[in-house]
Amino acid sequence: MKPISTESCLELNFPATEAEASAGIAKLSTGLARQGLPGNKAGDVRIALAEAINNVVEHAYAGVAPARVQVTCRLDQDRLDILISDTGNPLPGYHPPAGVPASVETAPQDLPEGGFGWFLIHQLTSDICYERRNGCNRLSLRFDFENTG
Amino acid sequence: MGLTSTTSGATQIITVECDRIDAAMAIQFKEDMRRETESGPDRVVLDLAGVEFIDSSGLGAIVASMKQLGSQRRLDLAGLQPVVEKVFRLTRMDTVFRLFSTLDEALSASMD
Question: What value of ipTM does the predicted structure carry?
Answer without folding.
Answer: 0.94
